[in-house]
Amino acid sequence: MADPISDLVHPQPVELIPNLLDQIVINTASLFSPSSWVLKAIELIPRAKEAIDGVEDHFFGDWNSVLVIADALNHLADFSDDLAVEVHVANSSCKANWDGQAADAAYDYFQTLRTDMGQHGPALRQAAKDLQDVAFGMESEAQA
Known about the structure:
By secondary structure, this protein is mainly α. It contains five helices and no strands. Helix 3 crosses helix 5 (101-143) and helix 4 (63-97) packs antiparallel against helix 5 (101-143). The longest helix has 43 residues, at 101-143. The chain starts with 19 loop residues before the first helix and ends with a helix.
């Protein structure tokens, strides 16, 4: 049996794995961008890199925070899936040892609960994937 509580861990930013074509386009575009050349020249000035990073965070956002949220949603999806399994196991065990109308009503209620909880996982994973895509777009825009 799964332990749903073990899924609730402190989220960490996941590593962005960019699409090779996206990286080629971004890197090629930066070769022809005058602002990219100016930024590279400014970065040679001491302490200018920190100032540029601060401005970029202000305009493009902190994509690491978005990745942390995506990881939290993935953990929540795992929790929801494991909890649905636990509800099913407990419900089946209870059904085997309890008879009557109340038992049938309780069984139906917990089956519905398990089904509903099972639908949360895929939706949460899709939201996490969408947030990872947003974070990649934020990073790509900041790198361009």
